[in-house]
């Protein structure tokens, strides 16, 4: 039997936390950064953009925004704002088109980006429906929830821990009996390290953050500020063990397989099982016995959608909940079916787990995120290798300055940022840290350094990258280290690609763990930058558009989930 869509309850609690905003002419602000110091989860007053919770980005792999679907509704076509992790359903959606005549045009995004678009009303013009990993965070935003008419869960997947079998054996764990407290104890004793997506950009990361906070605080109902305060010490110890971060689940899995430096990954059960199937990692997938947060992937029609589009949402929902499709969903994606007559795929354990309570108010959710970002997680250390050659003169340099200036508003406490502008050679190196005791001084100095950038010289990409690795040094354990390379051209001076490859491969393993995130901008050689990303284990970002997603400020903002 097909379940009727669940209506959203009116009157979600309002708080004084600031609504996500866009800074005119600059990058999107971190959607979950609370506006009140007063919120201070006394804990500590810190989750990629996923993308807050987004699927994997960023906004875990977020690509595109309203402009992609600005041509208006079409009969038989559904414009859906969807979590990026649902991209694995493309083959199934093609089958749905053949069966129902409904063509799905998805725009992949993270949950926070989606909530921001819903709350601002921009989604009404561009989409007919929203399909996120979970609507839990959306419900905490009355301005966003008001744009949704109903929601129907289509499948589920709980947060889980994927652990190397050798580590399970070394810790003496029985997988079905493991609790969050046991995981915390192993991390605190230095016996377990792990990777997790950025909770501010990835829904899997945010769900993991809530799971850990609920599990370690012993909360019996919706998380409160007092629960988080009481667990602050344990949370700080727990997140000291995080050695990998990412704006998307896909890149996290790739980094895990490439580096082999962590014992475990925290992600959705379906992602971990798919990683085992596709990459033969052999992880032991553990759902902690004391409870988890579960994604239920509700398909929700927008209130502004046309009657025809709402009918199409209902028809697509009904199709996706048929027993045959549910069997295919669980078999192909390792998500759990929501139709009782369909059994979960064989790798999915049948024993039940308690559903951990989600924060009851937006202030608690935002405060938990703020605490994670600024107090709980390891700090970031990033070198921005910036092309300021002669070809950058004029509008290009102005765009770079605007993007960097806007980014200074989003730097975290304890974060170390180095600007390394180059032309024919490195021009200067300036490093600043965001001091919790005086958090404005570091960003102000960075803005001054940014304003002083000038264009001139040729383009020494590889020599400048070598200088960046020298700045990072051998200490990659105390912080999340990364290098961001922005160039508008090809290498014309200094070391060659072959020189840099030989240099990189000769580095000690710990230093090779620092990835380079190149940004395609202007006339830069995409293939050349893609090779740099592949060599160092980074990811290529596109900044070829003038504004919005795909612009320079959008690329810099998306990279934040990987730092």
Q: How would you sum up this structure, described in words?
A:
With 563 residues, the protein is α/β, with parallel strands linked by helices. It has three domains: 6-155 and 296-333, Periplasmic binding protein-like II (D-Maltodextrin-Binding Protein, domain 2, 3-Layer(aba) Sandwich); 157-294, 3-Layer(aba) Sandwich (D-Maltodextrin-Binding Protein, domain 2), CATH 3.40.190.10; 379-562, 3-Layer(aba) Sandwich (Rossmann fold), CATH 3.40.50.410. It is 37% helix and 15% strand. The chain contains 22 helices and 18 strands. It has helices spanning 90-100, 111-120, 122-126, 136-139, 142-145, 165-171, 180-188, 203-217, 225-230, 232-239, 249-259, 269-279, 307-320, 323-333, 362-376, 395-407, 441-451, 461-472, 497-506, 509-512, 526-536, 552-559, and strands spanning 6-7, 77-83, 103-109, 129-131, 150-153, 157-163, 194-197, 242-246, 264-268, 284-286, 294-295, 298-301, 380-387, 416-422, 430-433, 480-487, 516-520, 541-542. The strands form three sheets. It has a six-stranded mixed beta sheet with strand order 1-5-12-4-2-3. Helix 7 crosses helix 10 (232-239) and helix 18 packs parallel to helix 19 (497-506). It is globular.
Shape: globular
Share of helix, binned: 25-40%
In percent, how much strand structure appears in the residues? 15-25%
- Low-confidence segments, given as residue ranges, are 1-68
CATH fold node name of the largest domain: D-Maltodextrin-Binding Protein, domain 2
Q: Cα distance, first to last residue? A: 46 Å
């Amino acid at each position: 039997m097909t379940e009727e869509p669940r209506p959203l309850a009116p009157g979600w609690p309002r708080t004084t936390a600031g609504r996500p905003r866009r800074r005119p002419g600059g990058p999107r602000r971190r959607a979950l950064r609370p506006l009140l110091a007063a919120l201070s989860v006394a804990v500590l007053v810190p989750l990629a953009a996923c993308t807050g919770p987004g699927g994997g980005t960023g906004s875990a792999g977020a690509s595109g925004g309203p402009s992609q679907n600005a041509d208006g509704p079409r009969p038989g076509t559904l414009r859906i704002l969807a979590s990026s992790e649902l991209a694995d359903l493309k083959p199934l959606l093609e089958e749905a088109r053949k069966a129902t005549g409904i063509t799905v045009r998805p725009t992949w995004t993270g949950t926070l980006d989606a909530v921001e678009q819903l709350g601002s009303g921009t989604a009404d013009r561009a989409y007919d429906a929203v399909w996120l990993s979970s609507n839990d965070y959306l419900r905490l935003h009355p301005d966003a929830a008001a744009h949704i008419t109903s929601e129907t869960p289509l499948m589920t997947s709980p947060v889980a821990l994927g652990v190397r079998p050798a580590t399970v054996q070394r810790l003496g764990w029985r997988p079905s009996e493991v609790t969050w407290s046991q995981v915390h104890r192993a991390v605190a004793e230095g016996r377990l390290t792990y990777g997790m997506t950025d909770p501010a950009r990835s829904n899997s990361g945010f769900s993991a953050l809530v799971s850990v906070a609920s599990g370690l605080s012993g909360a019996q109902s919706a998380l409160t500020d007092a629960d988080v305060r009481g667990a602050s010490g344990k949370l700080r110890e727990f997140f000291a063990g995080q050695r990998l971060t990412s704006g998307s689940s896909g890149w996290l899995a790739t980094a895990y397989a490439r580096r082999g430096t962590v014992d475990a990954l925290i992600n959705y059960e379906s992602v971990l099982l798919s990683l085992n199937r596709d990459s033969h990692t052999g992880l032991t997938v553990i759902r902690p016995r004391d409870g988890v947060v579960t994604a239920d992937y509700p398909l929700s029609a927008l209130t502004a959608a046309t009657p025809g589009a709402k009918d199409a949402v209902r028809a697509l929902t009904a199709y996706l909940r048929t027993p045959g499709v549910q069997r295919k969903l669980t078999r192909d994606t390792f998500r759990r079916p929501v139709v009782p007559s369909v059994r979960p795929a064989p790798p999915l354990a049948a024993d039940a787990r308690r559903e951990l309570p989600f924060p009851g108010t937006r202030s608690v959710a935002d405060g938990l995120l703020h605490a994670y970002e600024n107090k709980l997680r390891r700090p970031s250390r990033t070198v921005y290798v910036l092309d300021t050659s002669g070809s950058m003169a004029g509008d290009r340099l102005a765009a770079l300055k605007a993007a960097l200036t806007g980014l200074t508003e989003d730097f975290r406490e304890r974060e170390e940022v180095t600007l390394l502008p180059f032309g024919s050679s490195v021009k200067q190196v300036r490093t600043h840290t965001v001091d919790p005791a005086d958090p404005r001084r570091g960003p102000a100095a960075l803005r001054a350094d940014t304003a002083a950038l000038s264009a001139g010289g040729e383009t020494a990409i590889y020599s400048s990258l070598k200088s960046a690795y020298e700045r990072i040094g051998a200490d990659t354990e105390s912080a999340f280290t990364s290098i961001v390379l922005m160039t508008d051209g090809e290498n014309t001076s200094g070391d060659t690609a072959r020189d840099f490859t030989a240099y990189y491969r000769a580095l000690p393993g710990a230093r090779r763990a620092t990835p380079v995130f190149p940004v395609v901008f202007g006339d830069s050689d995409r293939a050349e930058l893609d090779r740099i990303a592949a060599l160092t284990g980074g990811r290529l970002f596109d900044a070829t558009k003038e504004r919005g997603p795909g612009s320079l400020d959008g690329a810099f903002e998306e990279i934040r989930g990987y730092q």
